[in-house]
Design brief:
With 92 residues, this protein is of the alpha+beta class. The protein contains 2 helices and 5 strands, in the order E-E-E-E-E-H-H. The chain is globular, with a radius of gyration of 13 Å. The chain starts with 15 loop residues before the first strand and ends in a 6-residue tail after the last helix.
């Protein structure tokens, strides 16, 4: 790890940087970054139990499309989280 992004919520030595998880119901959204990726990604997770979970790592270039899709699926609260979390990107 060379530099930790300002939005990273982890302490100590680590290679995978993650921001604070934002939640809307069973869905969490946060930024994730590994230097091997070259750019941060949006991590979207849906959890209903230990054996019922799914996650997506989304390139930030697709945040607008994901927001539109979530609005079309009548999930504006998740679309808002996706937009807000992606706006926090500042790699130092």
């Amino acid at each position: 790890m060379r530099h930790c992004p300002v939005w990273c919520g982890k302490t100590g030595s680590h290679h995978l940087h993650t921001g604070q998880h934002q939640r809307a119901g069973d869905v969490t959204v946060c930024l994730a970054y590994d230097e091997a990726w070259g750019a941060p990604k949006l991590h979207i997770g849906h959890y209903q139990g230990p054996d019922d979970a799914s996650t997506v790592l989304l390139p930030l270039s697709e945040v607008d499309d994901m927001g539109k899709l979530l609005i079309a699926l009548d999930r504006p609260e998740i679309a808002e989280l996706v937009t807000e979390v992606a706006a926090d990107v500042r790699i130092t």
